[in-house]
Amino acid sequence: MKLGKTRNKVSTEFNMSSMTDIVFLLLIFFMITSTMVTTNALDLVLPKAKGKTDSNKSTSVSIDKDLNFFIDKDKINEADLEKQLLALMANSDNKAIVLRAEKSVPHEKVVKVMEIAYRNQIKMVIAVNPK
């Protein structure tokens, strides 16, 4: 009986093909999921400031440079703003709005939305462009 060297040797080489497959699958996954995430906002030039706005499921109130008011993407009259907001917030647990006003909008328009939120105990965040 011969108890010498065995013929089965373990390969010490590392095979990268399985690692590259995993990297490509992750890349495809993140590319697909990132295209599904879209913000529900208009194209506004926001003022610059430090900080960022969380993109949760809160309602967005936007004021463009022509002083048009929008709730999410729906254009509304300035006079109907409070009534429309209260109708939207009636069923919502999360009473919060994100105010998106262009930097050329007069302060009185921004303050008007802030007063509506304060009167109705609605939390409000002002959206800005990070520096």
Explain the overall architecture:
The protein has a domain at 59-127: Nucleotidyltransferase, domain 5, CATH 3.30.420. The strands form two sheets. Strands 4-3-2-5-6 form a five-stranded mixed β-sheet, with helices on one face. Strands 1-7 form a two-stranded parallel ribbon. The longest helix has 20 residues, at 17-36. It has three helices and seven strands, in the order αββββαβαββ. Strand 5, helix 3 and strand 6 (123-126) form a beta-alpha-beta unit. By secondary structure, it is α/β, with parallel strands linked by helices. Helices cover 32% and strands 19% of the residues. The chain is elongated and about 100 Å long. It is a single-pass membrane protein; Single-pass type II membrane protein. InterPro entries: ExbD (IPR003400).
Task: Present the secondary structure layout.
Layout (H helix, E strand, L loop, with lengths): L16 H20 L11 E2 L9 E5 L5 E3 L2 E3 L4 H9 L6 E6 L5 H13 L3 E4 L2 E2 L1
Parallel strand pairs: 1-7, 2-5, 5-6
Antiparallel strand pairs: 2-3, 3-4
